[in-house]
């Protein structure tokens, strides 16, 4: 029995989260399924930026560090992320980028077990994680990076393993690791795990505390809707915070930054992982992005994500069969994140044709089209319309137009 | 013969840079002599931020990485900073913070001379430089940090010296090092110098190429008017770029960031010093800040800075003698930057009283009041009025009011 538009509209009508859509400024005539390299603009962000620029910077100037709480922003925004990832408020801080934060955590945590020389990660992990890991191991005496295929990761954990660096939800396939199981497996072997939550935070329910996670980083510009290149977050479980001494140090992470003392003394707790002065305009936008989750429980969002994903997959099966689209994302919701990806021999051109037709997904080299499922602002009819357009593009061969072969710098 | 208000107004009337004042939105009834922890708001920044948020992010979304040149912003903005510091466009890039950039340069450059174990710096250097240095040396096998008094720095350069880390203009005293002389002295001894230009860029004429500087970092939120916590810049002379391999690595510094390859291959040239995704809202504000220098030659700005400083010092001598103000900034313009600092036994309360009276300088622990001299938007009569208010505060003892003893988190 095929899915009807009527049935899809009934799903929207029954959606208890439908009103959240109004919290965002969405572009006209676009179905935004970017998955998810840049979240959409929350409606409150424009006014907040105007206040930041004109009043807080322009008028109050340097006084805003105290008067408008700039100096506490890394902790304050971190505490707002905490409930989205199942952490306690003082275990999360906003600072720098995912890359820089991974460097901080790898180098600080590796030093706790100087007799264990291996940083273990997954081949095909998001590449910045592997790049930063390749340098970070050179900063720790005797350390080396071992990269093994995904299905060999668990067996590779052993007495040499110092740190395990994994991305919780894979950027390409959306395959999700079992955080509790793997963290426990590593801990039994005497190793610690660093989780990259870039495709998880704000997308799937996370319970870092309950699942025993000790170290994590994540992205502000994807599902948290913090704006282009928004600062990242860093998580350290309370019991580890005082044991870690950052190798990458700066005045904002000093115990007394305004005493201007030559000697480095780490700040108590998570604040020691701050380094330089935070980019406040971008920080303010991130804070607005996180506030767009207010009153929307992650469990409810996740239930809707699952339903949107399943609808997408079912519609593709019905409407696009015979067009060489091969789903690489797990059918089991417990094993996946909040995006759905397909292999296609002409994935790049297909993605460009979709964009030209108002459906924004992303191409991921060499042959994947990825669609983000963001329950905060997507409806079921959006999914219907996206698949309709994709089916038409495939049926008509629209994607063969030569203009869709031209690549920009960011593809 | 005392200086008259008439004479000061004549200086404003004859000022060829007076029109630059209109490029900025200055708060009413405030004389802004912050020196210079946060530059003022350029008039064009508000509109640019609105365009960034509403159009580039909100409307164009992920497409803006190509369509609005986000992906090239680190290089493009770096190239705009280059003429302000006497560098070539491809030698400067905007990324991360001063702290993180120092870590990148120290760790990458130290590896070039593995037989030289010493990173040499100045006691009382801006503290984040010493904090980051203390960690960076631990990331390089055998390396150690040596910190010596300012007047002992040159003599301490020797065969053990790998890197010399100096701040060109001292954040507190404004004392300026001889860039050409010290860089040459270090090079003769086989050492390289990293210059922190945080209090120099946009403040004093810089000729990095001419003066033989090879490595430098600098701040975007001070004299470049890039907004609170604006991203920083990093300079590497062309001849060194390919020799340096960053220890802190990320996808934006990869040769092919969108090939998503596991292996790290540094980008050609300066781009290898990028790491994570840049915070675009803050990047855009920095670009506006730098554009506020358009058509204003650094030499003309510097001549005005010298005249403003000399007027300030002369008026203090005339109006505030006998009040224990002790100027710690060099009288010789060639030996200083663009701020003037005074020791005073009650510097904190004095600074707070000045702020309450509409003159914003900064307190620098333990006993310094610092006044920034920013020729882009300050006039001679501003200096007159600031000193008048300071004289009145000293004469009346207004600063003794108990409310001026209360410290905020940022002091």
The CATH class label of the largest domain in chain A is Alpha Beta
Count every helix of chain A, treating DSSP H or I runs of 4 or more residues as helices.
Answer: 13
**Mean pLDDT over the residues of chain A:** 96
Strand order in the sheet with the most strands of chain A = 4-10-9-8-7-5-6
How would you sum up the global shape of chain A? globular
CATH architecture field of the largest domain in chain A: 3-Layer(aba) Sandwich
* Rounded radius of gyration of chain A (Å): 22 Å
For the largest interface in this structure, which chains are involved and how many residues does each contribute? A-B, 97 and 97 residues
CATH fold descriptor of the largest domain in chain A: Aspartate Aminotransferase, domain 2
* N-to-C CA distance of chain A: 38 Å
The fraction of residues in strands of chain A falls at 5-15%
Low-confidence stretches of chain A: none
The assigned structural class of chain A equals: alpha/beta
| SSE arrangement of chain A, N to C | HEEEHHHEHEHEHEHEEEHHHEEHEEEH
| Corresponding CATH superfamily of the largest domain in chain A | Type I PLP-dependent aspartate aminotransferase-like (Major domain)
| Largest β-sheet summary of chain A | 7 strands, mixed
Instruction: Work out the oligomeric state of the chains in this entry.
Output: homodimer
What is the count of structural domains of chain A? 2
> Strand tally of chain A, please?
15
Helical amount of chain A: 25-40%
């Amino acid at each position: 029995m095929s899915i009807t538009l009527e049935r899809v509209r009934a799903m929207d009508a029954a959606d208890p989260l439908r009103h959240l859509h109004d919290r965002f400024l969405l572009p006209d005539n676009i179905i935004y399924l970017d998955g998810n390299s840049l979240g959409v603009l929350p409606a409150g962000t424009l006014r907040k930026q105007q206040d930041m620029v004109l009043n807080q910077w322009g008028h109050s100037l340097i006084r805003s560090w105290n008067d408008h709480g700039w100096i506490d922003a890394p902790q304050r925004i971190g505490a707002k992320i905490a409930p989205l990832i199942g952490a306690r408020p003082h275990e999360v801080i906003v600072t720098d980028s995912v890359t820089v934060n991974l460097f901080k955590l790898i180098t600080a945590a590796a030093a706790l077990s100087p007799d264990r020389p291996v940083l273990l990660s997954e081949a095909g992990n998001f590449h910045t994680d592997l790049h930063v890991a390749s340098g970070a191991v050179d900063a720790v005496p005797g350390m080396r990076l071992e990269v093994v295929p995904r299905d060999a990761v668990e067996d590779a954990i052993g007495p040499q393993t110092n740190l395990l660096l994994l991305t919780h939800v894979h950027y390409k396939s959306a395959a999700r690791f079992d955080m509790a199981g793997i963290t426990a497996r590593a801990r039994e072997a005497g190793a610690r795990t660093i989780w990259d939550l870039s495709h998880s935070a704000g997308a799937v329910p996370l319970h870092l505390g309950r699942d025993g996670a000790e170290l994590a980083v994540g992205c502000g510009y994807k599902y948290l809707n913090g704006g282009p290149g928004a600062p990242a977050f860093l998580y350290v479980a309370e019991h580890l915070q005082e044991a870690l001494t950052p190798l990458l140090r700066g005045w904002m992470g000093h115990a007394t930054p305004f005493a201007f003392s030559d000697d480095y003394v780490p700040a108590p707790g998570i604040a020691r992982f701050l380094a330089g002065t935070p980019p406040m305009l971008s920080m303010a936008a991130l804070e607005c992005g996180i506030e767009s989750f207010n009153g929307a429980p992650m469990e409810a969002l996740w239930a809707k994500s699952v339903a949107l994903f399943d609808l997408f997959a079912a519609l593709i099966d019905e409407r696009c069969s015979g067009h060489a689209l091969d789903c690489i994302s797990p059918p089991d919701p417990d094993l996946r994140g909040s995006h759905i990806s397909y292999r296609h021999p002409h994935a790049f051109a297909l993605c460009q044709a979709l964009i030209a037709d108002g459906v924004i997904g992303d191409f991921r080299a060499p042959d994947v089209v990825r669609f983000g499922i963001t329950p905060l602002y997507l409806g079921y009819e959006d999914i219907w319309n996206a698949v309709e357009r994709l089916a038409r593009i495939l049926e008509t061969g629209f994607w063969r137009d030569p203009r869709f072969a031209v690549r920009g710098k960011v593809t």
